[in-house]
Amino acid sequence: MRKIKFFDTTLRDGEQSAGVNLNLQEKLEIARQLERLRVDIIEAGFPASSKGDFEAVKQIAETVRTCSVTGLSRSVRSDIDAAWEALKGGAEPRLHLFIATSPIHMVHKLRMTPEQVIEAAVEAVKYAKRFFPIVQWSAEDACRSELPFLAKIVAEVIKAGASVINIPDTVGYITPKEYGEIFLYLQNNVPNIEKVSLSAHCHDDLGMAVVNSLSAIEHGATQVECTINGIGERAGNAALEEIAVALHIRKDYYQVETRLNLQEIKRTSNLVSKLTGVVVPPNKAVVGKNAFAHESGIHQDGVLKEKTTYEIISPELVGVPSNSMVLGKHSGRHALRNRVEELGYTLSDEEINQLFVRFKELADKKKDITDDDLIALIFEEKFDHFKDFYQLSSIQVQYGTNQIPTAVVVLKDGKGNEIQEAATGAGSVEALYNTLERCFQTPVTLLDYRIESVGGGRDALAQVFVKVRAHDIETSGRGTAQDVLEASAKAYINAINRVFMIEAMRGENEKVATP
């Protein structure tokens, strides 16, 4: 059987989703989980785009040892140099070069002739081969390119040393039949095509990213580029979990194999969803919470008699447990550590100790601690890296049907100074957010506010996700607590801290750029 490689771009193309900002620690945690999932290639970022992206790519390359780590690069030497500095410590460093090949991009964006585009692509590949053993070359907007020109430039970059040729459907425009025909055209019209692997990269603007990727595999592609949960720019990318499970369940049809550990799919999906704040729809294929739920009496009867009557994917295949271990207030630190490791998270001794304190506090309030509760606590402790910014000390909200909602908030800044403010609003959350805006002394626009229940029951944790804009920076935040208003405050503070962190990083970048 043919081997299909999975190129995961969650940390690069996926992070380009509007409002998603991952910090270094969050990116490292996702990279470690992708390694457990056994993807073949992790695209860790765009090293030349910022100091933060450079450092993230560098640390991921030095941390991950069983996957190849790559970074994106334009067809310019400075990008290639930055990528090599970031990736040279990797187990199998590779470069992902791109340049646009469609008439609309060459004329309006690049302002280059087709001959100039070929020259730039060839020069970039030759230069990159001085450093990188594997160079992947992408024809941006390939699916709206003229096929004779596409074949010509592909032949030239292969001569220059490219090892992988990627054919992106950059704007999610093409149909499965047309996409497959591009791969056949290149195989029939590029004389040296047998020297390279062909890769597919599909966007979901018309809802066809997964089926287009599968069509590419049917027509000769041996690599697919995708993201966890299908996140990405605009409508997103092809969803890794959907392609992977389709290839497994229909191995009789596709006749291909992968090296993925499918049992890590659900855990990976949960991690990416929690860290990005992008919620997985309940009816999402493979990883949605309803993917293995049966409500219809006829379906329930069939599944009880024989699972395969209505269940073509077993929950265990993708890591959905048939039962869960319940932790309570009598559980010790050892049991907690074991459960954290079983859930796939890596915590230091200090982080375990901090988590144990929070766990005990919650266990005194809740009878049973579910895995979802524990994951929420882990995220609160492990990924709140804003100790140098604002922290919530206390909130007090007064509300009544015949009263004006009023909030009083006490914050601590990075130096330990207390800030106390009060404000009113049309409702409790608005009063709370108006007060926090006064504390920050900066205009903040709330773009989105979502609340979820972690688990069920009256004592369930509340998890709040917000998206805000401040100082022309759009970012997201999350907060978890048993009280809805406390969770709302934490989410808002988390988002604003991210704004200040981004500004601080920009300031450092400007210092570096100044002679």
What does this molecule look like?
- The protein has 515 residues and is an alpha/beta fold.
- The chain has three domains: 2-276, Alpha-Beta Barrel (TIM Barrel); 333-382, no CATH class; 391-511, Alpha-isopropylmalate synthase LeuA, regulatory domain (Double Stranded RNA Binding Domain, 2-Layer Sandwich), CATH 3.30.160.
- It has 17 helices and 16 strands.
- The chain has helices spanning 24-37, 51-63, 77-87, 103-110, 114-128, 147-160, 176-189, 209-218, 240-249, 251-254, 265-276, 297-305, 333-342, 349-365, 371-382, 428-440, 484-513, and strands at residues 2-3, 5-8, 41-43, 68-74, 94-100, 134-140, 164-169, 197-202, 223-226, 256-257, 391-398, 406-412, 418-424, 445-454, 461-470, 473-481.
- The strands form four sheets. Strands 2-3-4-5-6-7-8-9 form an eight-stranded parallel barrel, surrounded by seven helices. Strands 11-12-13 form a three-stranded antiparallel sheet.
- A hairpin with a 2-residue loop joins strand 15 (461-470) and strand 16 (473-481).
- The chain is globular.
- 44% of the residues are buried.
